[in-house]
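Summary for the funding panel

The consortium committed to producing paired sequence-structure records for every protein in the target list. Below we show the first two records in order, beginning with the earlier of the two.
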Amino acid sequence: MKILIKILKGLLIAVAFFILGYYMVKYFVPTVGKAPDSKEMAKSPYYHKGKFVNSIPTKSAEFTQVPRILRNYFKRDVETNPSKDYVFTENNKQENDSILQVNWLGHAAILFYKNGKYVLADPMLGERASPFTFMGPERFSAPPISAEDLPELEAVVISHDHYDHLDYETIKKITAKTKYFFVPTGVKASLEYWGVPTEKIKEFSWWDTHTENGISIIATPARHFSGRLFSQNNTFWASWVIEMEGDNIYFGGDTGIFDGFREIDEKLGPFDLAIMPIGAYNDAWHDIHMDPTEAIDAFQQMRAKKLFPIHWGTFDLALHSWYEPILNLENEAIERDIPLLSIPQGKWFRLDDDSENGWWKQYSDEISSE
């Protein structure tokens, strides 16, 4: 009996510490963000039984798969990080304001420039894709342009609230220099909590549009999910179409393969550039992350002139090597005659520039030794 009482006391203490920790993190760690008003969210046609849902049935990794995924993660024998000289700085910006220029800042962060105006997508320029500064996926190298050094921004578009796409520290540093933040339904609550003025935030559902100062921003469908530590799918997700004075850009953000790409093209295409995520894929979460083959399949659903890959080469978020996504994409793009732009981080490029296939090989001990 005494042993049972001790066990019960131990369990009660453990539960008490868990509850205390939960509320301390929830209310005293601002990176977690803030949950939106569920009554307001319920007005969305994509909100069902207290959660946002995709337009088609979608599975993510189930809880029962976690032990197997963790075993495979620690057993894997792949190159998980590039070499130490994997460092990038901003370069090659051209003086011609009338031509669209693009700069990949790592992972899904992309900076666009035309006629003196800048638009930034998925501003994750922090050190870790995590609510904590001491743990979680760490960036392979510093971004080529820091948040402090970014120019004045006409717009910032955010695909969803995952830590590798929406970073608290980055938002804090760019709020004063940003005219508008465009976010999916529900994400506004976190931005307001972090001090972004309400009048700067445009909260969109799919197909909502804003046009101002020669720039059009349209929220478009994606197949994904959301969540920041304690929440799952209480905010929405989106891809985006950005039109900058005649140049039409599709920004995929983070998405699985689905027929929505064709619908987006039919309504808003053709596109000068399609930016597609290609990394962090696995069979366990196939529906929500495209692999390189599917990224090309999605590209072919759209009337786009060029394909640019994102969502790779910045964080270790899956079981594959750090370079596998771009290796497979470049090879398949050649086989399928896809107009790919493979350009290093930090380098400003124009849409008529040549692809620099293989630029990343020098940073892989496995590839460079072959």
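The next record, for a separate protein in the list, is shown here:
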Amino acid sequence: MSIVGDALEFVRWSRNHDAMFRRDLPGPEWFTADDSVFGVALVFPLQGPAGIFGPTCELCARLAAEEVNRDGGVLGRQLRLVPVDGSGAPHDIADEVEALVDLGAVQGVTGWHISSVRRALAPRIAHRVPYVYTALYEGGEDTAGVFLTSETPRDQLRPAMDLLAHERGVRRWFVVGNDYVWPRHTARSARGYARDRGGCVAGEAYLPLGTHDFEPVLRRVERSDADAVLMLLVGSDAVRFNRAFAAYGLHARCLRLSTLMDENMLVASGPEATEDLYSTAGFFASLANRDTLDFHGQYAARYGVQAPALGSLGESCYEGVLLLAALLKRAGTLDVSAIGAAAGAGAVSYEGPRGLLHLRDAHVRQRIYLARADGLDFDVLTELEARP
């Protein structure tokens, strides 16, 4: 059993015994609350489709934790990351993280995990400890105590669809996504964005996480006469789809746009499978600015040139740790209500690989870019202009 699993079993056991009996009962030694340490549950995928970028998520978060600790830690404590596998059933992950909070082993939560996990986790812990969610998502999260660093469809997808309609004449879209809340809600937004440009979503297909056979969907795409496919697939599912799409020959007649396609997924797909593939994100490793180049240097110096490729999903976990530290520094307390008040006052900011960023309405305000696959890298074409 994992360390976190041990903690979960301990909490389940202790909840079933009289409080007077368990008052002085020690928990597992590693999980004993320590006033000199600020524990942070880092929830990220260790396996499954999203496991392809899990190593980068962990390495980037650890790099940020080391930076925070060099600067004095969090409220005078050393920040310690507690890894939690975010690739399982959402309610099981919520159980594990809640167990860590119950034990006093963590005082904050961050990481990249899918929206189904966030929806299970937020009601359980956000009122008790600050929760910084780093994955792009469908929008609309307003749970008190939840703070978000990444992109939403309004600022990420809408301007990308607008630009492709204008520059490439895209009118008919086909949505291919995994079958959970983020793809389905994002597709609902995409229908409206397409209509605004005189276009339409001609078809939609939602597949279980871990899908290998895409031929039935590709036949539907072919019959739909779509100009473009909006890919809302996670990790290795997107990799397999890219390969199948190219093998089917659809790349010659239909472009692809993904809001979740990092450098690890691009490399795994292979250059022969990514012709006319676009990605939109707030960070690309190929951005040629000082902040991005500095981040490359720090990452390579710490982990070596053979480390997993930097990308937007790993970088988001770096920012998650930085934002959590910034929230606590501004509030000066672990109290979630006070942290929320500090965030609501618009006074929380941090500086990272994307420059100086500010928090407003619990979301980080950010620049977002459109890039096109170019071999094993992305060619960043433009910064997207957000509409009001």
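Regarding this second record: The chain has two domains: 3-152+296-365, 153-282+369-383. The chain has a mean pLDDT of 92.
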